[in-house]
Amino acid sequence: MLLEVQGLTKQFGGVAAVRDVGFQVAEGTIFALIGPNGAGKTTVFNLITGMLRPDAGSINFSGRRLDGLKPYQIAAAGITRTFQNLQLFGGMTVLENVMTGAHIKGKTGFIKAMLRRPGINAEDKQIIEHSMALLGEVGLDGSANLPAAALPFGSQRLLEIARALASGPRLVLLDEPAAGLNSTETRTLAGYLKKLRNNGLTMVLVEHDMETVMEVADRILVLNFGRVIAEGTPAEVQADPKVIRAYLGEDERIA
Amino acid sequence: MGRNKIFTKIKKPFLWPACVVLFMALPLVVDSNYITSVLIVIGLYTIIVQGLGILMGYAGQVSFGHGGFFGLGGYAVAVLTTRYDWPPVLALLAAIALPGLVAAGIGRPALKLREFYLALGTMGFGILIHTMFNEAGKLTGGPSGIAGIPYLSTGGLVFDSDIKFFYLVWAVVLLVLFGINNLIRSRVGRALRAIRESEHAAETAGIDTGKLKLKAFIFSALLAGLAGGLYAFYVTFVSPAPFGFNASVQFVLMAVVGGLGTFFGPLLGATLVVLLGEFLRWAIPLVIPGAGGEYEIVFFGLILVLLMIYRPEGLGTLGKILTSPGKKKPGAAEAGIPGGGRGYEVN
Amino acid sequence: MPDQLMQLLFSGLTLGSIYALIALALVTTFNITGVLNLAQGEFAAIGSLLAISLYAAGIPSTVAFILSIALVAMLGGLLERAAIYPARRASGLTLIIITIGLSISLRGLALLIWGTETYSLPAFTKGGPLFIGGAAVNPQSIWILGLAILTLSLLYTFFELTYAGKAVKAAVVNRTAARLVGINPGTVSFWAFMGSGALGAAAGIFIAPVTMTTYDMGFMLGVKGFVAAVIGGLSSVGGAVVGGLLLGVLESYCAGLVSSGLKDALAVIVLLAVLLVRPQGLLGVLGERKI
Fold first, then answer.
1. Do C104 and B298 touch (CB under 8 A)?
2. Residues 115 to 144 of B: which have CB under 8 A from any C CB?
3. φ and ψ of A207, to 5 deg
């Protein structure tokens, strides 16, 4: 198992946002976290990426204990993420966004950076090439020199994914990647995610669009009020009465 | 595909060298000690504001204590050359190193502070250093300061005239500009800008934001110290007065006026504020008879207030908007003071 | 020796009451508007100088005091409308830079009007010192302590016992809800600055008989107000008072027993220590509250 989460608990001012959540993600699969609003999905992401510290529980990644590490250390360990409310570097170019995602691949330090012209040394060339290739995959290579904030919303989502891939992570956490996309864009996204999985990437997905989830996910974990209420394949979860009850009247898209 | 527009942005390769040569010839053409001395002061402030600009405009951290670092540099030179007979060049190196060490010491805990806590903390630090200059009389000469600092000299070269000093200071400015120009477009520069844009995303991209902010803080302190050391050699006299809280505010003003996160912002800001100061020093006594130049601070304060309200991105972006009317300056709206809205985000 | 300690304690409490008053104004404004007003000290300086000038012009002292308190309150309101309100959506840092700009401008203005001379006011009540526990206590100290107690009880009464005060407190917690019940946060912010102007001016006037009043005294007074507020955790009214008294007493002992030159440095050292070690304030009253 690439990622093993056990007994994860986080409280905010006495209210448990996540309680005793555990799951395992196998290498090369897409694992989906679903649940009604406020179920604690994003909190789970924030705990895995070190943006929040768990009150209890453990997170093991490829046999290494991650809980308690800082976000940048977790990124270095091979986990990156995207954000539900986009967190692009809006004033930087599209290419620079992806290049920044590849930060840990470089070594240039403060002093060295001042002494030589950027863009012409071997390290920068390699990162530019690699980043352009990633942008090509999401069809943004033509916009490489635009400011990220100038991209249409759908492209911004894709850019965030490209940025998250730039460091060559083993696990990527995608927080509602389809939110705000139209149906064509969502199709493209689903195809892209499947392609990434076929190339061996592991992903954990939080998503409200059930059609996409059912299409791409290998396994699904259902959260409600911070607790796990079901886990299984898409077919098993769809048939689970507890899941249907949790969603009933809340979200008709499940049916 | 590797060759990109951003890396070949200077389209007219001879424009800048020509400007530099013209500027450097200025003191030879206009034979005025006054103008040369104003240009030297602009150069010294530019050095400080370049460092502060990296800290504020890129790493997104404010400092109201850089008057203190400036002073540490000045006093390092004054004390080491007059009391311990250090060779001037060594003393100048110490003037760079001392603020750097102090910044390294206080930076780690200080940069954990956010927004106004950081502003208050750095302000407190600046006041503390300033008080020490006044109170540690045995070492610093107290309020009357230290006079008799020798000229900066190395080998046979003695910087004993304004013109020589002009070339020295502006050579340093150009070096720093060159270094920063490389820096901001490098891996480190991208990481710094990323902190300003979204600290969360920067962290999850593997950037140790705490360490990088600390480096930017130390870098800015080193440059302030360098400017302070040069200042001491130029004036050959130091006292606590120019290193107080008003100096710190003035540096922030320069950084903000020029436009945070812009390449020429520090140069522009230092130039505008110094020229305005000179103008006010000349104009105020004409309007208010008997008034001294110290009232310039009223205007500095007002300008700071007006800028923060109506143009937090500074004047540096103005030129760009004028030269490329079709293109909107990217992210101009997000420029200005980083650090998000009031209060912390929940996660 | 114990007499000297008592003496220092009383002068420390007097000094501390002033810091507490400045801190009270800071904390109240900060809680209501989210703005840390670094020009607070200038309100005290200008209030004091104004009262001195009016008094010197032959206006009876009480009238002069009330007039200058009212004028500085108006100044506070004016500044809020002119500089804080237009930037109300800006980041906290932008706002702090604005108040710093205001503070240096006000200081420059005071220099323009009053110059670098030192001014003073006669004591409010004539008569020699009172002797309490072997220490000579200046009657003016009693006035200052009284003002601190009066302010604290007025603030308490307003925020805890009046409908308007409770409404303001609600506006702090939830701006949208406040609008729903008819409170305009912009108006509240205006009144907060008026109030802190008045409070600052009163503090400045009350200490005028026992200190040297100069155009630049507001700066250190403001800094010490912050130190007091920060000791108390920045958002606690009670904390601000305790922080102010603590700082005053500490300074008084430092000046009396060690060196008076280090007095100002002490306040800053306390500030740095608190910020770096316990940013939530020494008194820890901040608790869960997110600032």
1. yes
2. 115-117, 119-121, 123-125, 127-128, 131-132, 134-135
3. -155, 140
Q: Is the pLDDT confidence value at B166 over 70?
A: yes
Hey, are the CB atoms on B109 and C94 less than 8 Å from each other? no
Q: Topology of C2-117+138-277 in CATH?
A: ABC transporter involved in vitamin B12 uptake, BtuC (1.10.3470)
In terms of DSSP bridges, do strands A227-232 and A56-61 run parallel, antiparallel, or are they unpaired?
Answer: unpaired
Alpha-carbon distance B166 to A65, whole Å? Answer: 58
CB pairs under 8 A between A and B: 154
- Write the pLDDT tens digit of every residue in C261-286: 777 788 888 888 888 877 666 665 44
> Cβ separation of B187 and A147 shorter than 8 Å?
no
Whose tokens are 């800028």? That residue is B307
Query: pLDDT (tens digit, 9 = 90+) per residue, B263-311?
Result: 888 999 999 989 988 888 888 777 777 666 567 778 888 888 888 888 7
Q: Is the pLDDT of residue B347 over 60?
A: no
Q: How far is B48 from chain C (nearest CA, A)?
A: 19
CATH of the domain at B52: 1.10.3470
Mean pLDDT of B315-319: 55
Residue A240 is encoded by which pair of tokens? 């689970």
Backbone conformation region of residue C122, classed left if phi is above 0, alpha if psi is from -120 to 50, else beta: beta
Looking at this predicted complex, what is its ipTM?
A: 0.88
Domains of chain A and CATH, by start = 1-78+169-255 (3.40.50.300), 89-168 (no CATH)
The enclosing H or E element of A143 equals none
Mean predicted confidence (pLDDT) in A49-76: 91
B336: nearest CA partner in chain C:
C94
* Position B238 in a domain: yes
Q: Which residue of B has its CA nearest to A122?
A: B2
CB C271, CB C277: distance < 8 Å: no
**pLDDT per residue as tens digits for the range B203-234:** 999 999 999 999 999 999 999 999 999 999 99
Q: Please indicate, yes or no, if residue B289 is contained in any of the structural domains.
A: yes
Q: Rounded distance, CA A32 to CA A217, Å? A: 6
**CB distance A110–B187 less than 8 Å?**
no
Q: What domain range includes position B132? A: 33-323
- Maximum CA extent, chain B: 66
How many separate domains does chain B show? 1
Q: Which of B188, B209, B334 sits opposite A113 (nearest CB)?
A: B188
